Amino acid sequence: MSFPDPIAVFRTEAAELLEQIEAGLLDLNVNLGDKDQVDAVFRGLHTLKGSGAMFGFDALAAFTHHCETAFDRVRKGEVPATRELVTAVLEAKDHMRALVDTPNGDHEATGEALLANLRAAVDGANNPGTGVFAKAAPGQNHFKIRFSLPQNAMANGTNPLPLLDELRELGECEIVADRSAIPSLELLAPTDLYVSWEVELLTTQPRSAIDDVFIFVMDEMQLDVTTVEPAPAARTPAKTQAPAAETLPAAVPQVVAAAPAAQPAPAATALVDAKQKKASENVRVPAEKLDELMDRVGELVIAQSRLSQLAGGSGDLQLRAVSEDVERLSGELRDTMMVLRMVPVTQLFGRFRRLVHDLAHETGKTIELVTEGETTEVDKSVIERLADPLVHLVRNSCDHGLETPEERRAAGKPEAGHILLSARQQAGEVIITIKDDGRGINKERVRAKAESSGLIAPNANLTDQELYQLIFQPGFSTAQTVTNLSGRGVGMDVVKRTIDALRGTINVTSHVGKGSEISLAIPLTLAIIDGLLVRVGDGRYVIPLSAVEECLELPIEEDMRSRGRSFISLRDSLVPFLRLRDLFRTGTKPDPFQKVVVISTGSERVGLVVDQIIGDHQTVIKGMSKLHHDVATFSGATILGDGDVALILDVGHLVAEGQQQEAHLRAAG
Amino acid sequence: MNEAVRKISENLWGGRDELEVLTFDIAGEMFALEAVSVQEILDLLPETMVPGAKAFVGSVINFRGKVIPLADIRLAFGMEATKPTIDSRIIVIAINIGGEPVLAGIRTDKVHEVTTLLRAAGEPPPSVGMRWRPDFIDCLVKRGAEFIILPNLQAIFSAQHDHSATGASHG
Asked: Which Gene Ontology CC terms are recorded (chain B) (predicted)?
């Protein structure tokens, strides 16, 4: 087993911390009195400083220290939180990122300027204070606690981490692990506990509260509690080591390697109670390893379907039993794997809060960003590719969509513009919507611009949707002025290209004076899907099961009816159907009893007429070769149990193609 | 002769005087491909037609768990279709399309051998007197009484790729 480079691990951790800090700051900006956010920002800064110092990012630690100091004073109520302070720290945060990325770069001048800003922001609100750490407030007790548990404590089911957590709950607390007793690796027993702890605690609770924490382990442990007179300096040395101590789940080899994200060793895992799990059991894995694993699982699923087919054809009961076991296991493995690849869109949406904050500053508009459905989960690779187009769309909404406060007042709207960013899942697709309450798209201007640039013929008869789609043409911009943000006409075509590449669709609705809404519908293209295997002519095809609503037999009278009207009535509603045999030009005789698979694509239901429904099939999606990228009917291919290739139908595109064909037929009469 | 040698496509020979190739038959003509681009020679496999794709790459095959297109070079050279025989093989090659390596199978009637061709025996495709598109051929190499065709796969596949919008629809 190889350990990740600790510096790389720190960078990842730092990036997350910076994100947390930013989120906290932005929340704080909305509600300056929010104590929780002040604490959250402080905690983030504090951890960043600590781990930065531990990994040799001294410049970062020193710089962060000043921000931390400022926030500590806010936290203690010495200085009120102000917008100036938030802005100063936000800028400082960007500088911290630079310090993380290029620790050896020349950052001093920028840093000094930012610190001056910060000082001004703090001093502006209050007179300068000196102490980093406040003295214990009246009514607070300052305890020094030293405790060690017996070496076999973990084997007996005691977990020291919840104890530390309980201490933290009592009040402000600095925990340092004493690792001096950890033996060398060959002597180390992974189940034994070698670490003892020193804790400094500022609390309003009495001494007995500390005893209560240790009540269940009191008999076997050593506990020294001393009360200290407030002496701020004494606490300083503990600071930088604190994060290390916090990530020490037990005296196990990983910890000796001092990786902050070290996971508990198996022996320790068994002891970790549920409360602790969420914090300590996260493991960071590089994405490509996940993809590799996915490939292996894919191969396994293929091998498994071959096994099932063999077992099904033989009378050997034992073989069948094994095959069924393997089928169940590989199904579970696949499900687990899929969950691993899914990440909530929170990550994606999180970064827009900062973007909007900055845009509001630059444009002088007041903008409120509301996000919805952040827990919607999307495949990781999809998330990554969505980031860029969404940036363009959000920028566009901020810059072009929303009016200035004066214009909004004049139009009788609230001064603050609203942007809603939402995500939801719908039938195998994730729908991401960006909605603003701005001025809307000026159709006449789009038309005029399109005509003048020759995109459409003058007075061409276009539907609103067709007209709106023009804004995604390269170089198309109706903005009269090119601003720093947008208006150059690049951007929207990037959106279009990316969404096309993801085989998604863009839908635009807009009302002049009321705002616009842009919806991106992106298929949840996962590496493995459940599919319905059907036969059309001699070919076998897979329909994604998530799109299938129901299967039925095509009534003979409907089948016999003329081609001009291809509808079946399904519980009193008319559903158009497509004959895949015609679409694929199979040139074979149709089976006597045709089946209809009813699929839904967004708002529409369509029936697909097939010769035979073979059954449920777990499908590993293999991408189509570049040479077949012009074939939009298929989103991919898969390998069946017998080694043959079956193509996976791209439901959305298929329906579009079918509708064209329908239109042709109708036109032909 | 010297002049002719100069005209031979450099991207194939790359300054070398000898080339290791795999020779094979398609529709009565002998072709050769540089041996290093050949991944594998397979017996005929079950093909899956791709409705709507161009006839040149009208089907896909399962190559060791990968789905790769099967190309029919005869269509690029306007040759007659031949029936599969006991000698028919699929040659899997890696070609570079748009900067990315792409695997593809090529249907052949018979695969001969790996042999060494001499640059000195090579000639650029004649600009007249040939019914094939000259840019589809890197060079012709004389061996005994016959010519071996070294097709320019990059050009052939790219042509199919670029003209995908206008390409003939496959029935």
From this structure: cytosol
Looking at the structure, tell me whether residues A43 and A146 fall in a common domain.
Answer: no
B16: CATH: 2.40.50.180
Residue with more model confidence, A401 or A270: A401
Nearest CA of chain A to the CA of B157: how many Å? 8
End-to-end CA distance of chain A: 70
A-chain residues within 8 Å CB-CB of B52? 584, 631-633
Residue pLDDT tens, chain B, 171 long: 444 444 566 667 777 788 889 999 988 889 999 898 899 999 888 888 898 888 888 899 988 778 899 998 888 888 877 778 888 999 999 988 877 788 999 999 999 989 888 888 888 777 766 777 777 888 888 888 888 888 888 888 877 655 443 333 333
Q: Which residue has the tokens 């060494």?
A: B116
Q: Which of B44, B56, B59, B60 to mutate to test the interface with A (most CBs of A within 10 A)?
A: B60
Backbone dihedral angles phi then psi of residue A541, each to the nearest 5 degrees = -135, 155
pLDDT score at A256: 37
B-chain residues near A645 (CB < 8 A): 46, 48, 60-62, 67
Q: Tell me the residue range of the domain where A652 lies.
A: 528-668
Taking an 8 Å cut-off on Cβ atoms, the answer to whether B60 and A637 are in contact is yes
Prediction ipTM score: 0.80
Query: Total domain count for chain A?
Result: 5
- Contact residues for A263 (Cβ-Cβ < 8 A; gap 6+): A249, A254, A269, A280, A281, A282, A283
Number of domains, chain B? 1
What are the start-end ranges of the H helices in B17-166? 73-76, 153-162
Residues in chain A closer than 8 A to B93 (CB atoms) = none
Contact A628 B60 (CB under 8 A): yes
Same domain? For A77 and A1 the reply is yes
Q: Are residues A91 and A12 part of one domain?
A: yes
At residue A450, φ and ψ (nearest 5 deg) are: -65, -40
Which 3 state secondary structure label does DSSP give B72?
coil
Q: For residues A645 and A541, what is the distance between their CA atoms, to the nearest angstrom?
A: 9
What is the per-residue pLDDT for A565? 54
CA atoms of A175 and A168, how far apart (whole Å): 9
Residue B171 lies in a domain: no
Enumerate the β-bridge partners of residue B144: none
Q: What's the whole-model pTM score? A: 0.48
Establish if B118 touches chain A: CB-CB under 8 angstroms. no
**Where a domain ends, among A305, A328, A343?**
A343
Asked if the structure places residue B165 within a domain, the reply is no
**Domain boundary residue among A93, A126, A159?**
A126
Same-domain pairing of A171 and A30: no
Q: Say if CB B16 and CB B119 are below 8 A apart.
A: yes
Assess whether A36 and A114 both reside in one domain: yes
SS3 (DSSP) at A479: coil
- For B76, phi then psi, to 5°, come to -70, -30
Strand partners, A636: A648
A566 shares its domain with A502: no
**Which chain A residues are closer than 8 Å to B70 by Cβ?**
none
**Chain A partners of B161 at a C-beta cutoff of 8 Å?**
626-627
Read off the DSSP letter of residue A609: E
CB contact B163 to A (< 8 Å):
no
